Write the structure tokens for this entry.
Amino acid sequence: MLQVVTIDGISGSGKSSTAKLLAKALGFFHLDSGAMYRMHTLTSMKQGFKPDQHSDLKQVADSLEFSFAENGELLANGQSLPKEIRSPEISSHVSEYCKAKIVREALAKQQRKLGVSQPCVAEGRDMGTVVFPDAQWKFYMTARPEVRAKRRAKELEAAGMQADYGEILQNLQERDSKDTTREHSPLRQADGAVEIDTSDLTLDEQVSILSRLVRTAP
């Protein structure tokens, strides 16, 4: 069976932080699919493409070769991913730039390649439903909107970026709507996935719960 833990869920539910620490605890690699879509969006915008230029966006996706460094870091064309991919501007555009079927399929192909290369904790929005439907362990993370907005604001401030709570909350809600209603591979809970509401859980508690479930699963 494929040695992949999938963690899907809405923006700000704690997927990335939990996935990173869970991967470390399990000795797995961390596959951050959101970073891949963000890198694609940043590259596409820098090249002047619009969200409806699907064939051009597909070429951008094909031009980005993702791989794992020996230390587990996710690279694009052999280089570290820039901090700029986490900016509010990229966050507000990633859903529209990456909604086209041909773009998502191109990046999903690379995600599957990474997933079979190493035992992975793969987190995103369609990891358990589309990319790794045969994953050994599946989770779906959620949290209240106001909690998620506060977490995202704290993350941005820690990275030295300006954070407006109201703007972040609106962005999260808009992205939820786009991700759950898009035509191709919409965000939903995968069959057999365990739902984890992280609203009132610390990061350590989230990692502990998932780690225990993975290790005790048959």
The mean pLDDT is 94. Residues 4-209 form a domain with the Rossmann fold fold (CATH 3.40.50.300). The chain is about 50% helix and 15% strand.
